[in-house]
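Late entry, evening session. Most of the bench is empty. Finally got around to the prediction I had been postponing all week. Sequence below, unchanged from the version circulated by S.P.
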Amino acid sequence: MAENPWETRYVDGTPRICIDVAGEGPLLVFLHGIGGNKLNWHPQLPEFSKHFTSVAWDARGYGASDDYEGDLDFSDFACDLERVLDHFGAEKAHICGLSMGGRVAQDFYALFPEHVATLVLCDTFAGDDESDERASRSQTIEEFVESRIRPFLDGADPAELAQKRGGKLLAPGHTAEAKGRAIAAASQLHVDSYIKTVRASAAFTRVDNLKNIDVPTLLVFGDQDPLTPPTVGDYMQERIAGSELVIIENAGHMTNIERPAAFNSAVLSFLHEHRDLAR
């Protein structure tokens, strides 16, 4: 079996951030969803690393990254991402985030726009918008929080819960490999940090900043995403000037692991157009 093409490193600071790194070239950072970790991006690293310094992180309190004291301010993730760019001495990077990772990417742009070359926002949303029902995920804030943390408050084990729920957000007909990747990452959740993340992210919004995004932006949504359906992508595309929207067929909420070939093709095509904006 071939060795993994990536190297695992730690970004110094409090908390330490664990990253998998592969390739050379402009910096590209992949940000996982609320129930995942950097394992979710392993289908991308071999292909993207042919063209970019490709980095998948474990967000604070996830995977091999450190836990932390106190409550979470959602923008702590953006500050951690700034440390990742500093680790590589990068002035700008391409940022690709899925679900919660897409919300981190939007927050990072709002706080540090000078460090963003492009945005790839996948199966995500900006926040609730009372003026347009398309803006929101399929669950209310209360439903989202309750469904995510109640099992853990009742003593659930992450690995057992992952096995039970594995594939819930994937499209019907998903592959065993996709389901296995989703389960593997969810099995490694740090319960306390995960609960902090759910609570901090529930009502967080960057809706008002969508109109301010002026870097090339690609929106990627699965046509069968049960949490953030393609109508969310329509809403975001209307508000981000010049943005592109790609719908991945036969994919649910985790387009990159469900349809990796289609995902990689769409995102690489976009990034090659803007490759040298990162430096």
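Two things to note before I forget:
The mean pLDDT is 94.
The first strand starts at residue 7 and ends at 11.
Will write this up properly tomorrow.
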